[in-house]
Design brief:
The complex is a heterodimer of chains A (110) and B (115). Chain A has 110 residues and is mainly beta. Chain A has strands at residues 4-5, 11-14, 19-25, 33-38, 45-50, 54-58, 61-66, 71-76, 85-92, 98-100, 104-109. In chain A, strand 6 and strand 7 (61-66) form a beta hairpin. The relative contact order of chain A is 0.35. The termini of chain B are far apart. Helix content of chain B is 0%, strand content 48%. Chain B is an all-beta fold. The chains are: A mainly beta (110), B mainly beta (115). The A-B interface holds A 4, 8, 32, 42-46, 49, 88, 90, 92, 94-103 and B 33, 40-45, 48, 55-56, 58-59, 91, 98-101, 103-104, 106-109.
């Protein structure tokens, strides 16, 4: 059974601090990795994608991938209350299927 | 339209009824996915279309579930003889590229409640 694991949280972070979200996956053949943000009652929206080992930065967001450890993370710098949401990690199982984690609920405290 | 549109947004069905959920993807998007999302869980893959071809339907939970995209644009997910365990949010997503390498754009979902 292929799996994607995330800590369900909630993860509480003070405003302005760095939020660190983690995800592990079981399929060593996975090549595409995504972080989606989902506000309560809304649909997921893409935050970051990463395909190779190392770091990828986009504004306040940095995705980190370590294929040897089967680990992908998302760092959010200068956290804002508007960042409060559930963050979903998704990993490709095949060309057509993504496996999704259950999500980590992030709360940014003003 | 500007985004992925799903209808109805909310559907209440009595157990045993048939339901049809519609998805209108972003114009020109090749790929269309259907997902099922239970409360507090991530989306679960149901099926994938590339244009009008259904290339993967391995996630459909039973033969009561059927999806089509006859002209390569609008898609319908049909659930026959609904059961209580079918209660969930059904998400449709589309993508410009084939497969899952690109960004998925999600609709707002159709929340199905089976009584």
């Amino acid at each position: 059974q292929k799996e994607v694991e995330q800590n369900s949280g909630p993860l509480s972070v003070p405003e302005g601090a760095i939020a660190s979200l983690n995800c592990t996956y079981s399929d060593r053949g996975s090549q595409s990795f995504f972080w989606y943000r989902q506000y309560s009652g809304k649909s997921p929206e893409l935050i970051m994608s990463i395909y190779s080992n190392g770091d990828k930065e986009d504004g306040r967001f940095t995705a980190q991938l370590n294929k040897a450890s089967q680990y992908v993370s998302l760092l959010i710098r200068d956290s804002q209350p508007s960042d409060s949401a559930t963050y979903l990690c998704a990993v490709n199982l095949s060309n057509y299927q993504l496996i999704w984690g259950a999500g980590t609920k992030l709360i940014i405290k003003p | 339209g500007a985004g992925v549109s799903q209808s109805p947004r909310y559907k209440v069905a009595k157990r045993g009824q048939d339901v049809a959920l519609r998805c209108d993807p972003i114009s020109g998007h090749v790929s269309l996915f259907w997902y099922q999302q239970a409360l507090g869980q991530g989306p679960e893959f149901l099926t994938y279309f590339q244009n009008e071809a259904q290339l993967d339907k391995s996630g459909l939970p039973s033969d009561r579930f059927f999806a089509e995209r006859p002209e390569g644009s609008v898609s319908t997910l049909k659930i026959q003889r609904t059961q209580q365990e079918d209660s969930a949010v059904y998400l449709c997503a589309s993508s410009f590229s084939g497969g899952v390498t690109g960004e998925l754009f999600f609709g707002e979902g159709s929340r199905l409640t089976v009584l």
